[in-house]
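HIT-type domain-containing protein, Scylla paramamosain. Tokens?
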Amino acid sequence: MASRESGRQKDASSRRILDESARRRRARKALEALEQDNFHDDPHANLVMSKKAPKFEESLDGSRNKDRKRRTRSSEYFKQRFRKTFTILLEEEQALYPDGPNYLTVQAPSSKRPERRLCAVCGFPAPYTCIPCGSRYCSTKCLSTHEDTRCLKWTA
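Tokens:
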């Protein structure tokens, strides 16, 4: 009589298991990849409206509305004209508060409580750990999502 074995245990034996330093390296690489993906300027910032575009404030006979004496500028105009990137804001804050705590120098003491163990997929409390990569998960549904999309797939 053959013993029954779960498919999850068979899959776990074929996968590579990472030690703690490899897991930390993997997490650091994933964060660096996310930071690199997120840092870019707005691709639509330098778009200019075409002069051939129809102006909807014109009447049918071609004359403009003469009741308007002064053109007001929208808030979007000022947002684009005086736009500051994150790096510019950091430099300004560093210049304003060189000695005091700012975004780059602020630190919090380590917590007195144990680390929370949350699911890497949904964020709920997670009692289980993925064997190959060490990520946490809360249910078999989250485990299958983790294995399909996250587990050692993008960075190793």
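The helical segments are 7-14, 20-38, 75-81, 86-96, 140-149.
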